[in-house]
Amino acid sequence: MKRGLVTLDPAQIPRAAYDARIDAVRARLEGSGAEVALIYGDVSRSGDINFLSNLCLYWNEAVLAIPREGAPVLITKLSKRVTTWMRQTSVLDQIVSGPRLAESVGKLLDDHRGGRKGALALVDLSWWPNNLVNQLRKTLPEMELRDLGSAVREERLRPSPEERRLLETGAHLMDYALALAWSEPTPDARTSAAVRALRRSGFQEATVSCATLGDGSEFVDATGQYRDVWLRQSRPRGGPAAAAADAALSTALAAARPGTSEATLARLSAGQAAGRQAAFSCFPHADLETRGLYRGAGDAARVLRADEVVCVAVTLAGDEAALAAAATVRITEHGAEPLFRKEGL
Amino acid sequence: MTETRSVEVEWRTARTRKALAAADLSGLIVFAPAWRRENIRYLTDASLDASVAFAYLPSSGAATAFACSLGDAQAMRQAGFVEDIRTIPFPDVAALAERVRGDVKHGRVGIAGAEFVPVAVWRDLEGSLPGIELVNASVLMDGVRSVKSGLEIARLRRAGEICDRSWRAFQDACRPGAREYEIVADVEAKLRAEGAEDNFMLIASGGDDVRGMTPPSDRRLEPGDLVRTELTPQFKGYWTQICRTAVVGPPSARQRESFALFEEAVAAGLDAIKPGVTAHEVAKAENDVFRRYGYGEYCTSEWTRVRGHCLGLYLDEVHIIEGVDTVLEENAVLVVHPNTFTPLAGYFVLGDSVVVTRQGAQPLLSTPRELNVVG
After folding, report:
1. Which helix (H) or strand (E) holds B38?
2. Using N-to-C axis directions, what is the helix angle for A130-139 and A101-110, rounded to 10°?
3. Which of B13, B33, B348, B364 has the fewest CB atoms within 10 Å, i.e. the most exposed one?
């Protein structure tokens, strides 16, 4: 649940950066022939809206409308009692609150050039709830709904300089939280210590799981959102399963460089899994929010690019629980550069 | 499968199948995005991490769970409610469609969570299931889950104990100068140390201009502030909620008056609870107190969302609002909270979670309803 600090800090991400992000969507909109782009988000899948506005969608669903001209408008199911807070913590000025998103989109278009005719461009149309798309079609029978593709996600894949700084800061803070966790004796105490440290250092989202397995393997697996960047780190230790997962991860990391495909890394790491059932994943940090599942069909075949930040993970099935070794790294010409330094040492 | 598990699975399956039969549905597909896992949890009892999972419950025979990660498949196996567990590469739902096709050739199949199914998945399911009408079964499942088993109530009760301890941690953290997000961090640490797997929490500190609660800011507490929160720890899937308001330093006369108003409204709502009561009747009992004192306008959607809601595997089940005629049966669980703004002291929250029993509302919390002085 997103219940950590929500803050809009121009020193971390300047207003101009948000303007540029919105302009990038407008540039894609130009080519689509549509007048307005719509971006969908819900509690567990709001990274695109957060990236464009800094808004934290802590509850329910929303749609961000970006017209070719004019200010973006957030259409939300959240109560208008919290729109003041939403304005304070985002770059959005215009927020419309209502229980039916499609109806609110229609009303918004009534005030817009072109009205309810022409085309609407839906970002990542295939990931929109089918029900909501049907409601849009019903509400706007004379409008064509076009797919704008992953117009926002693609902008999020390669971190900007300010995001790189946030990733480094976030990794430093997560390092500290994990070090505190490892100093505790039990899994519950470790979870508690890590969560407290992450929340106190300003992580908006923090998911931590810890366990000690029968073979002596232990892990503290942390995933978190710091401002608009995501990080995951887990370096298990202590037993054969931990050693196998860590070896598989290390093998993949050693081979990760621009031009290498996820499939190649998966093949290399599989050889280290010591005969255990294993799953390998490697995806951009921006996809951590959805655990890498809401990607394009061909995304697994793509090759790593220089300067992107990816989360590499190896999960091993065990008798008691699955155990993962995971690291968030920057891909450079010289290989995978770790963002994390201390944890696991 | 242990005997306890087996009895629980049979009970849940029977309730679900009875509802499916009444709705003329030949099977149930469950779609669970990360923020709405209540139905997948109901069938599998597993704590999941991946952002999507599916399940299928036929009208007879065993259920099948479809995990989208190795970790989730492992969690489903550990939970032990479902034996047939398959891992699928989301968004490829061919294996799910094949499972449904093997069971149903023609007719209607329900989908719990249908309103969240992505376009790509819906298109593939529809295309793979010719002759089968896919019907939204989310409301149907809300009804199925509304009456709790003994095991479910025990978990809700344990979550209630975590509420009590977390509220004490909240009070300890509320000192002048403390920042809202630091308070949340300390409460979260306590919750997790107590075994909670998650928590939903909103907070609002400040004076009588506060209109609602949100995630935390970096605002520091000041003497005289009211600090409002709802804490909702999740224990083994089940969410129980406590709503309280504290005051930093001695309360003012208006803050005490506000507390008295809300306490009377909570008590009225709780007094109305018995098997067969409707959500409307509970809400009306609460709102009548506000009306009696001239604050009726603050019971509308302009100022408040709900007067409480049912609890369980989702933290915001049936809404307690005037006009909602849903009947609360014995062993339903709800929080009664007339949280709203009034001019007395701004937004104010107070609420307790209870079980509906023949003897009335049985509390899940032991924290007294008081205007707690902190700092």
Report:
1. helix B38-44
2. 40
3. B13
Band of pLDDT at residue A297, cut at 50, 70 and 90: low
In angstroms, the CA A311 to CA A292 distance is 9
Do B115 and A129 lie within an 8 Å CB cutoff?
Answer: yes
pTM: 0.96
Question: CA torsion sign, B349 to B350 to B354 to B360?
Answer: negative
Q: State the best of B48, B76, B115, B214 to mutate against chain A, taking most chain A CBs within 10 Å.
A: B214
Taking an 8 Å cut-off on Cβ atoms, the answer to whether A195 and B185 are in contact is yes
- Whole-number Å distance between alpha carbons of A168 and B62: 48
Q: Which two structure tokens, joined as six digits, stand for A70?
A: 């004019």
Beta bridge partners of A220: A210
* Interchain CB contact of A125 with B (< 8 Å): yes
Q: Is the dihedral of CA B369, B190, B228, B252 positive or negative?
A: positive
The list of chain B residues with pLDDT below 50 reads none
Q: pLDDT by residue (tens digit) across A13-47?
A: 999 999 999 999 999 999 999 999 999 999 999 99
Q: Cα separation of B140 and B357, whole Å?
A: 23
pLDDT at A344 over 60: no
With 50 as the cut, is the pLDDT of residue A339 above it? yes
- Closest to B277 in 3D by CA, of B239, B235, B325: B325
Structure confidence at residue A296 (pLDDT): 72
Q: Kindly give the residue spans of alpha helices, DSSP state H, lying in A75-186.
A: 83-88, 101-110, 130-139, 153-157, 161-182
pLDDT tens for A123-150 read 999 999 999 999 999 999 999 999 999 9
* B317 close to B146: Cβ distance less than 8 angstroms: yes
Which tokens in the block code for residue A209?
């799981």
Distance CA A335, CA B86 (A): 36
Mention every residue, 6+ apart, whose C-beta is less than 8 A from residue B282.
B269, B272, B273, B307, B308, B320, B328, B334, B336
Which residues of B fall within a CB distance of 8 Å from A315?
Answer: 69-71
Cα–Cα distance list, B118 to B113, B125, B135, B220 (Å) = 11, 11, 15, 41
Q: What is the structure's pLDDT at B63?
A: 98
CA nearest to A72, candidates A41, A45, A117 = A41
- Phi, psi dihedral angles at A209 (to 5 degrees): -130, 140
Cα–Cα nearest to A303, from A283, A285, A326, A286: A283
pLDDT at residue A345, rounded to an integer? 39
Residue type, position A320, single letter: E
Residues in chain A with CB shorter than 8 Å from the CB of B88 are none
Q: What rounded mean pLDDT belongs to chain A?
A: 93
Q: What is the 3-state secondary structure (H, E, C) of A179-218?
A: HHHHCCCCHHHHHHHHHHHHHHCCCCEEEEEEEECCCCCE
Give the C-alpha distances (Å, rounded to integers) separating B27 from A42, A248, B85, B137, B294.
Answer: 28, 41, 17, 10, 51
